[in-house]
Specification:
mainly alpha; two-stranded antiparallel ribbon; 7 strands
C-alpha cells in the first residue's frame, strides 16, 4: 500500500552477489524495523525483470514469498513452503521429498521471511539447496543461520543527511531517510512539505531515529498530533512516542517497542542480562570494556565475548570499528535495553562501574609521557566521547562529585585539543560548584575551567574562575597551584585591560615569594612579569626578569617553565631588534618543545614569536616557526592549534601581498575554530580576513567582518582584538569618505591599546590617524603624528612599521614643498619594503602615488630618479634620522 523508497545501493550489491554461482543462500539480517522484508520483496521484483537485474543474474521461473511470522513451530516449516508453492504431498512420499522433487529442475527463488525464531528448521534449507541446484533462497532473519551455504548481508539504516547547516529542502529530500519521512508524513498530513523553516528539524528527526524505516514511519504518523519541532523534542522517549502503526500490519510493526520485544524474547536469560547491561555504554564499547564493566559479580555464566557475538548475530548489537572491533547498539535498541537494566537491581552498580572504567582510562592516558602514545590516547578518547559524557552525568546526578571532578580534570588536555572548549568548561564549572567535592579537586577544576575559558576567548570568565581557584590554593597551602594561578590570573587581567591590576598581583607575588623562599612562585611571577614587561615595550626589564626566572626553572628542572621563559626571552630579543639572540632563544625553545608532549597553552605562544620575527623582516624564520607549530598540531590531532597556525600563516601571507592565499588560510582557520568552540581564535581569523579586505580597499567587506567579530568580542572581553577590529572599521570609514566616523573608531581603538600600554599597536592606530590628517590637508598634525610614531617604532625595532612611516613622512614632505626630501624618503621606504618583502597595500597605492607624482613633477624625472636611488642606499638609521629632522612648512 505504500511506495518503496531508496535502497538502490543495497539492491545493486545483492544482485551482484547473486551473480556468483556459490551465492545461493543470502540472509538479510538486521534489527526489527530496519526494512528487511520490504527490501527482499523489492529485490524479487527487480530480479524478475531481466533487463533491470543486469548481466550475470540468473533468470528465474518463479519467485515465491513465504511468511513465517505467524508460525511458531519449526516442524511446520516444510508445510508452509509447500503451501506457498502450491505443492501437494504425494502418497508414500514425505513432504520434504515431495518438495525436492518439485524444485529439483526449476529456477526458483524462495523468499523466507522472519525465520529467526525457527532456527531448528535450518537444516531443511541446506537439504533443499543440496538437492536442487537451480534453487536460490533469500532469507530475512534477525539472526544468522550458520549454514555453510549462507552469505550474510546486513541491511543498513536508510541514508542520512550530515549535520551541515543551511541545506536546501530539495537537496535534503535526496536522502533516503528524509524522503521516506516526508512521503509518510504526507499520508497523514496532506499539506506537509519540506520548507526552509522545517528542513533542519526534519533532518535532525531522521538523524535521531538513525535512519530506521519503522521508526521513521511511526514518527511521521505522529505529525497528526505534533509539528516537527514538537515531535523532535519528544523523541528522547521514542519508545513511548512511536506507537500507533497501521492495524493491518503485524503487531510487532505497530509499535517500536513491540518490534524489539520480538527480538528480546528470543534471547536466553544470560543474553538478556548482558543485553541490558551493555546499555550502560553510549556510543559502543570494546570487548575489554564490556568485560570490565558488565560482569563485576561474575553472574553472567559465560564468556562475555561469546555473549556479545550472539547478540551481534541476533541483530541487537552491531559490530564496527576499523582497527579494533567496537560493539554498538542503535540508540532505539539501547533505550529499550536501558529500560530492562532499570528493572534489574544492577543498574546503579553498573553505572558506577562504567564511570570508574572511564576514569581509569582518562587518568592513565593523561599520565602518558610518550608523545606517540598521547596521540593514540586522544584518538581513543574521541571514540569514547559519549561514554565519558555519560560517566560525567552519572557522577553529577549520583553525588559522586570527586569521581566526576577527577574525570573532568584529567580530560582538560583532551578538550583543549579536540573541543568543544565550552563543553569542558561547563562540566568543570558545574562539578566544582556541586557539594561534596574536595577543596583540592575543586581548585584544580576551577583552574582547568579558567584555562579552557581563556582558550575560548572568554577573558573575563577566565579571570573570575582562576581567581576562585587561587583562593582555594592559598587555603590549601598548595605552592605549585598558587604559582600557576597567579600567572594565569595576571595574564587574564592584562588581556581584559586591567593592566595595573595584573602588575600589582605579580609584584605582590614576587615579594611574597622572596620573603618565604618559595622558588616556584617566584619563578612563575618572574616569568609572567617578564612577559608583560615585553608587551609594555620594556625589553631591558623583560630580559632581566626572564633570565632570573630561567635560572630558577633550570635549577628545579621544570621543562614547562623553561619553555615559557625561553619564549619570553626570544620575544624580548626580537623586540629589541636583536635578531641573532631572538633566533638563538627560539631554536632552543623549539628543541625543548620537540621532546615534550603537545601543550596547547605553550604552543599558542609560538605565534607571538613568529609575529616578532616578521616585524624585523625575518619572514622565512617566522614562517618556519608557524609551520612547525601547525605540523605539531596536526601530528597530535589538535585541530585548534593547527587552525591557529593557519591564522598566523595567513597574516604572513597577507603582509607579503599574497592576498588570495591569506584569505584561504583565514577562512579554513575560522571554519575549524568555530567547530571546536574557540571563539577568540575564530575572531582572530575574522579580523585577519578583514585585514585582507582593508588592504585591498573593500570597505563593505571590512565592515561586515569587523561587526561580526565585535559581536563575539563583546562577550569575550578581549581588548586587543577589539582594538584591531575598531581600527579596521576606522579605515573602512575613511575609504568611504566618512571622516568623523573614522576619527571616532580610531579614538576608541587607541584608547584600548593605550590602556594595554601596547606600544606597537598604538603606533598602528596613530599612523592611520596621521594618514587621515594628511588626506585632510592637516600637514603639520600629520607630520607630528608620523614623527612620534617613527620614534616609537625605532625604539621597538619594528621595521615593518618603519617602512610605512618613512613613506608617510615622504608624503608630508611632498605636500609641504620639499620634493628632494620626499624623493629621498620614498627611496628609503621602497628599499626597506623590498628587503622585508612587504609591498604597499593596494588600497593606498593611489593615495601615495599622488605625492610621488608631486615630487617627480617638482624635481623633474631625471633628478627625481637620481634622488630616489640615493634614498635607496641609506641605512635604516640614516633614513629615520632624516625623516625626524624638523619639518619646515612653506
Amino acid at each position: 500500500p505504500t511506495s518503496f523508497i531508496g535502497r538502490e545501493r543495497e539492491i545493486a550489491a545483492i544482485s551482484a552477489l547473486l551473480t556468483q554461482s556459490a551465492a545461493r543462500l543470502i540472509t538479510l539480517t538486521g534489527p526489527g524495523g530496519i526494512g528487511k522484508t520490504r527490501l527482499a520483496m523489492r529485490l524479487a521484483t527487480h530480479l524478475l525483470d531481466p533487463h533491470a537485474a543486469g548481466a550475470g543474474v540468473p533468470h528465474l521461473d518463479t519467485v515465491c514469498f513465504v511468511s513465517f511470522a505467524s508460525i511458531g513451530d519449526h516442524s511446520l516449516v516444510p508445510a508452509a513452503i509447500a503451501g506457498a508453492l502450491d505443492v501437494q504431498e504425494r502418497g508414500g512420499q514425505g513432504l520434504v521429498q515431495t518438495l525436492i522433487e518439485s524444485l529439483r529442475s526449476r529456477r526458483v527463488l524462495l523468499i523466507l521471511d522472519n525465520f529467526e525464531h525457527l532456527l531448528e528448521a535450518r537444516s531443511l534449507l541446506g537439504e533443499l539447496l543440496e538437492a536442487c541446484p537451480a534453487l536460490r533462497l533469500l532469507v530475512t532473519s534477525r539472526t544468522v543461520l550458520h549454514l555453510s551455504w549462507e552469505h550474510v548481508f546486513e541491511v543498513p539504516p536508510l541514508g542520512l543527511p550530515d549535520t551541515s547547516p543551511g541545506m536546501e529542502p530539495g537537496a535534503l529530500a535526496e536522502f533516503e531517510a528524509v524522503a521516506l519521512f516526508a512521503e509518510r508524513a504526507r499520508a497523514v498530513k496532506t499539506d506537509f512539505a519540506l520548507t526552509h523553516e522545517n528542513v533542519e528539524t526534519v533532518a535532525q528527526i531522521c538523524r535521531t531515529l538513525e535512519g530506521m524505516p519503522l521508526a521513521l514511519e511511526l514518527a511521521a504518523a505522529r505529525l497528526r498530533l505534533f509539528p516537527p519541532q514538537a515531535l523532535l523534542g519528544r523523541l528522547s522517549r521514542r519508545l513511548q512516542i512511536l506507537t500507533g502503526g497501521p492495524r493491518d500490519l503485524p503487531a510487532r510493526h505497530q509499535t517500536l517497542r513491540a518490534a524489539i520485544d520480538w527480538s528480546y524474547s528470543l534471547l536466553s536469560e544470560e543474553e538478556m542480562r548482558l543485553f541490558a547491561r551493555l546499555s550502560v555504554f553510549r556510543g559502543g564499547c570494546t570487548i575489554e570494556a564490556a568485560q570490565a564493566v558488565c560482569d563485576p559479580g561474575g553472574d553472567l555464566g559465560g564468556e562475555i565475548l561469546d555473549g556479545v557475538a550472539s547478540l551481534v548475530e541476533k541483530s541487537l548489537v552491531r559490530q564496527g570499528g576499523e582497527l579494533e572491533p567496537r560493539f554498538l547498539m542503535l540508540e532505539t535498541i539501547r533505550e529499550y535495553a536501558a529500560e530492562r537494566l532499570e528493572e534489574s537491581r544492577a543498574s546503579e552498580e553498573l553505572k558506577e562501574e562504567h564511570a570508574r572504567y572511564c576514569l581509569a582510562l582518562a587518568e592513565e592516558a593523561a599520565s602518558l609521557p610518550d608523545i606517540t602514545k598521547q596521540v593514540a590516547w586522544l584518538g581513543q578518547l574521541e571514540v569514547e566521547r559519549d561514554n565519558v559524557r555519560a560517566a560525567l552525568q552519572w557522577a553529577r546526578e549520583s553525588g559522586d562529585v570527586d569521581l566526576g571532578l577527577r574525570l573532568a580534570i584529567s580530560l582538560r588536555e583532551f578538550w583543549l585539543v579536540r573541543g568543544p572548549l565550552s563543553e569542558g568548561r561547563r562540566w568543570l564549572e558545574e562539578l566544582a560548584a556541586s557539594e561534596g567535592g574536595s577543596p583540592a579537586s575543586r581548585a584544580a577544576a576551577l583552574s582547568a575551567a579558567g584555562k579552557l575559558a581563556s582558550a575560548e576567548g572568554r577573558r573575563r570568565t577566565s579571570a573570575q574562575l582562576v581567581e576562585r581557584s587561587l583562593a582555594l590554593y592559598r587555603e590549601l597551602g598548595d605552592r605549585r597551584g598558587v604559582a600557576k594561578a597567579v600567572g594565569w590570573l595576571a595574564v587574564s587581567w592584562y588581556m581584559t585591560g586591567e593592566v595595573d591590576r595584573a602588575f600589582d598581583l605579580l609584584q605582590q607575588s614576587e615579594s611574597e615569594a622572596r620573603e618565604t623562599g618559595d622558588q616556584m612562585l617566584l619563578a612563575a611571577s618572574l616569568r609572567f612579569h617578564a612577559s608583560l614587561a615585553a608587551e609594555r615595550g620594556d625589553p631591558q626589564q623583560s630580559r632581566s626578569l626572564g633570565e632570573e626566572g630561567l635560572s630558577l626553572y633550570r635549577r628545579m628542572q621544570d621543562s614547562e617553565g623553561i619553555v615559557d621563559v625561553l619564549r619570553v626571552l626570544a620575544g624580548t630579543a626580537y623586540a629589541a631588534g636583536d635578531m641573532q639572540n631572538g633566533r638563538a632563544w627560539t631554536d632552543e625553545l623549539l628543541t625543548v618543545l620537540r621532546q615534550l608532549p603537545l601543550d596547547p597553552e605553550q604552543e599558542e605562544w609560538l605565534q607571538g614569536l613568529a609575529y616578532r620575527a616578521r616585524m624585523l623582516g625575518d619572514n622565512d624564520y617566522a614562517t618556519r616557526i608557524v609551520e612547525e607549530l601547525m605540523a605539531r598540531g596536526e601530528a597530535f590531532g589538535d585541530r585548534r592549534i593547527a587552525a591557529q597556525a593557519r591564522t598566523a600563516l595567513g597574516l604572513l601571507a597577507r603582509e607579503q601581498g599574497d592576498y588570495g592565499r591569506a584569505a584561504r588560510l583565514y577562512e579554513e582557520s575560522a571554519a575549524v575554530l568555530e567547530e571546536v568552540g574557540d571563539v577568540l581564535g575564530r575572531c582572530r581569523a575574522l579580523v585577519g580576513l578583514s585585514d585582507v579586505a582593508r588592504d585591498r580597499g573593500d570597505a563593505e567587506r571590512v565592515i561586515e567582518l569587523c561587526e561580526e567579530s565585535l559581536a563575539l568580542l563583546r562577550e569575550s572581553g578581549d581588548a586587543f582584538l577589539t582594538g584591531f577590529a575598531l581600527h579596521n572599521l576606522g579605515l573602512a570609514a575613511w575609504y568611504q569618505g566618512n571622516r568623523s566616523r573614522a576619527e571616532n573608531h580610531f579614538a576608541e581603538s587607541l584608547s584600548l591599546f593605550q590602556r594595554q600600554k601596547s606600544a606597537a599597536d598604538t603606533v598602528e592606530v596613530h599612523t592611520s590617524m596621521g594618514l587621515l590628517a594628511l588626506d585632510g590637508g592637516q600637514y603639520d598634525r600629520a607630520g607630528e603624528i608620523f614623527a612620534e610614531c617613527l620614534e616609537t617604532a625605532r625604539k621597538s625595532e619594528s621595521r615593518w612599521l618603519m617602512g610605512a612611516l618613512l613613506e608617510s613622512m615622504a608624503s608630508v614632505a611632498a605636500a609641504t614643498g620639499q620634493p628632494e626630501r620626499a624623493a629621498t624618503l620614498f627611496g628609503a621606504a621602497e628599499a626597506l619594503r623590498l628587503a622585508m618583502g612587504t609591498p604597499r597595500w593596494p588600497a593606498l597605492q593611489s593615495f601615495y602615488d599622488r605625492y610621488v607624482t608631486d615630487a617627480r613633477t617638482a624635481l623633474g624625472e631625471e633628478t627625481f630618479r637620481h634622488v630616489l636611488e640615493q634614498g635607496q642606499t641609506l641605512s635604516l638609521d640614516q633614513a629615520v634620522t632624516l625623516a625626524l629632522q624638523e619639518i619646515t612648512s612653506p
